[in-house]
Structures are given as C-alpha cells and as structure tokens.
Amino acid sequence: MRNALDADLDLSALFTPSAIGTVAVRNRFAMAPLSRYAARRGIPAPELGAFYRRRAAGGAGLIISEGISIGDGPAGSGVAGIRDPGAVAAWKRIVDAVHAERVPIFAQLMREETGGSRPVESERTVAGYVEAARQARVAGFDGVEIHAAHGLLPATSGFGAELVAAVRAELGPTVPITYRFSQWRLDRYDDRLAETPAELEALLRPLAEAGVAAFHPSTRRFDEPGFPETGGPRGQLSLAGWTKTVTGRPAIIVGSIGLAKRGDEAEAADTLGPLLRRFERGEFDIAAVGRAVLANPDFVDLLRNGRVDDLVPYDEHRHKATLR
C-alpha cells in the first residue's frame, strides 16, 4: 500500500487516554459495531470470542459489540439475543475474552424491526431494553449502547428520553449508556433527523439529561459537515462536533475511517489527517473504526507504530463476513 500519510503528521494525540463515564479507555479508538450474523438460534457463536479479542489485542481502546436483539434473536437470522440463559453465558465468555486484554466492551442493544415497519409498542419496547441491559450486566459488559440509528427507533426525544431513563434506572448511576443515532434511515440517505443545529439540540438534550454518557452519531463519512448550510467555520463541523456542542457530552465519530475514498485511488491513510484535525478542534472524543478493523485486527497498533504501509485495504469479498 502506498504510504499516503504525511511524514510530519503526529498521531500521538489519538493515543491519549479517554473515558466514557466511569469506564476508562486507553486511547481514542473503538471498534465500531459490526454485525457478524454468526448466532445460532440467538446464541452467539463461540468464534466471536477470538474475533473480538483479536481487535482488543490489536490496540482498540474500546469494543462495541454487534447489535444484540432485545428479543431472543430469531432462529435462522444470525442475530444474537441476550435473554436466553445460553445466550447470556455465551456473551459472558466473549466478554471475558476481551477483558483478558484489559479492554472494556459495551453491548449494543437493538430492536430488529425498523420504526417504519410497524407501530412501536412503547411500554413493551422499553421493557425489552431494560431486560436486555440487565442481562448485559450479568454477562459482564462494561456499558450498553442503545441503537436508535437508521430508523431502528422512533426519532422523538420524548420516547428516547423515556427509554434512556428506564435503562439508567436499571443500571444505576455508574454504568455508562451511549446512544447511537443518525440523520438518515437505511436506503433513505437523504433523510434528515434534524434540519438545523437547534433541532438537533432539541432532540439530544433530553437524552443527555435522561442519562446518556456519550453520543455515537452514525455517518457514512466522518469528514462531512453536519450542517454545511450554517456557513462560516461552524458550517464545517462534523455531526459529531455539533453533537458535542449542543449536548456537552462526549461524542464518538464514525464513518469510513481508514478506508480509501470512493471513486479515486486515495489510500486509507488519507483519512488520518482529517481525523486528527477534527480531534484537535475538539469535535470528538473517540473514533469508531469499522471495516478497516475487519481487514486489520491490529489497525490501531499499526497506526501507533507508524506502520501505515502494512495496512490491508478492505475488500468486501474477503472481509465482509470474516470471523478471523
């Protein structure tokens, strides 16, 4: 791979310690949630323990699990649940494998039906998240992430705040809750959850007040401005930057970090300069890396050691379904 990294680019700031609530994170990198669809009858496959441990051993400061169904995990779907005792026991083995590398792991909890597929039964959905959060703690997870992005939950602060408050009451004051949201829905990339920063603040502030420790705004490309129409320097803020600004909470930035840009020959390293600049401007606290970590379990250590030339490009045919 061509070394596209500026020789003068000092990435050491991305290797300073961080934290989400009470959970210490050794650097500024997390493994993004990556669905493996490797569950059998809702029970996560044993291979997932080694899969996640390799990424922890490879330098990631935090692991965020793939989406875990707040139900049982439908048979045949490959999606893991966490209600069944067998699923809890399997997740505990996975958590223990990650903890062996002294790295925290959060459980990303989700309901599988999208918000538009059928009406959400509010009380039932909240109860499902509360039970799943309880079981996540039994399995040893260090925190939980509520997956509200891509249309998985209604885009209303009232429902979201109710859900967060219920999960917070179950977990107590010290277990961190992160909240993943997005402007867009699956296959509807032009959708906008909030048209202005003021609308974003109105949606997110109640969630912060209800107990969210950090937000995880899901974007397809981390380096795109959240509200370019704002104009001036603020118009260049990423969605993560705006999220920090309007909530005062830490933000996890995500979206094609470490991937070659589409439509040209630019290499993965070309994303590191923009990532560092946004960090230095205070736009995010942790960077979640997805597909690049599938291709390179030691992605973080390669960056730390200046071995950008050793990065393997992500290849959908080779890496999409990997459990290695």
Quick structural gist:
Strand 1 (18-20) and strand 2 (23-25) form a beta hairpin.
Q: Could you walk me through the main structural features you see in this protein, from its secondary elements to its overall organization?
A:
The chain has helices at 47-57, 85-99, 122-138, 157-171, 197-210, 239-247, 272-280, 291-295, 299-304, 316-319, and strands spanning 18-20, 23-25, 29-31, 62-69, 105-110, 143-147, 177-182, 214-218, 252-254, 286-289. Helix 1 (47-57) runs parallel beside helix 2 (85-99) and helix 5 packs across helix 6. The model is unreliable at 1-5, 114-118 and 262-266 (pLDDT under 50). The chain has ten helices and ten strands. The radius of gyration is 19 Å and the shape is globular. The chain is α/β, with parallel strands linked by helices and 324 residues long. The strands form two sheets. It has an eight-stranded parallel sheet. It has a two-stranded antiparallel ribbon with strand order 1-2.
